[in-house]
């Protein structure tokens, strides 16, 4: 039982705070175990994930897309 509680605690602590609307390419790269280059060049620039540029010209990923990919969703064309 202790092991089950520890597993539950570990999964709960990985949940992102509610209310965040967008995530950076670095945040997405970290949770996917991918490089920042892969997310920026192969996913964003090639239109394989839903993303947009912020006012500074940096790619940002909407929360629903971030969560989809984090749960194991694949970029388009994978």
Layout: helices, strands, pairs:
Blueprint: H1 2-13, E1 22-24, H2 25-32, H3 36-44, E2 52-53, E3 59-62, H4 63-70
Antiparallel strand pairs: 1-3, 2-3
Task: Walk me through what this model shows.
The protein has helices spanning 2-13, 25-32, 36-44, 63-70, and strands at 22-24, 52-53, 59-62. The protein is globular. The model has no long low-confidence stretch (mean pLDDT 87). The protein is mainly alpha-helical and 78 residues long. A three-stranded antiparallel β-sheet has the order 1-3-2. The chain has four helices and three strands, in the order H-E-H-H-E-E-H. Strand 2 and strand 3 (59-62) form a beta hairpin. Helix 2 crosses helix 3 (36-44).
User: What does the average pLDDT come to?
Assistant: 87
Q: Which geometry do the CA atoms define?
A: globular
Number of distinct helices: 4
User: What is the rounded Rg?
Assistant: 14 Å
Low-pLDDT windows of residues: none
What structural class do the secondary elements suggest?
A: mainly alpha
Largest sheet: 3 strands, antiparallel
Oligomer: single chain
Order of neighbouring strands in the sheet with most strands: 1-3-2
**Topology pattern, helix = H, strand = E:** HEHHEEH
Features:
78 residues, globular
Summarize the structure.
The protein has 78 residues and is mainly alpha-helical. The protein has four helices and three strands, in the order H-E-H-H-E-E-H.
